[in-house]
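user: can you give me the structure for this one chain? tokens are fine.
assistant: on it. calling the predictor now.
[tool input]
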Amino acid sequence: MTSFRGLMGLIFLTISACAGAPPPAEGPRILAMGDSLMAAHSISGRAIADVAGTALNVPVTDRSVLGARMNYMLPVSGVMGMSIPKQYHGENWDWVIVNGGGNDLWFGCGCGACGRKMDKMISADGRRGTIPGLMNRLRRSGAQVVYLGYLRSPGMGSPIESCRDEGDELDRRLTLLADLDAGLHFLPLSDLVPHGDRSYHGIDMIHPSLKASREIGVMVADVIRHEGVR
């Protein structure tokens, strides 16, 4: 009988093979990383990364994973993608599309009394923490980065309505971080969802709908097209 360690190794190798090496350079080489905001609709090929790739007419390698966090302690599942920083394997990319942090706040502290969780991800001045550390790694590799903020609830029927203040504070810190580096582009989504409009969320009122993924993907493509490859 295959051991648990052997089984996990086989699964990891399979995932690694699927993720693959960066595609041949026939345009900007793009990696997508993150949690369910990025991963939603990937099975049907209509995730944010898919839309951005179609708009730019280039392949996008998507390693985002549902439920992934910025700070994730379990080693095996962390390597398999539950740790967002470990979704980056050290290759050279022209662009990396990233999101993350929401699961750390929602699952980690219920979007209440989240000061320590927030500070561990990114300090109040935007200079220290897991997110700045990851951005530094990506930028040192030569990649430009698009960091996505989170959708806000439309103010009705959403379990993440209480996360609005934390989302605003995370956006503020990410804005400060992006201001430090012209190659890091923060794309907030705080104004994307009109009040009372449920069409930007799925049935669970947490994850993006196809409409939201499509609009965000186009926005990401616009940033990459406008900035070019540095």
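assistant: here you go. Strands lie at 30-33, 60-62, 95-98, 144-148, 184-187. The domain at 4-227 is CATH 3.40.50.1110 (Rossmann fold).
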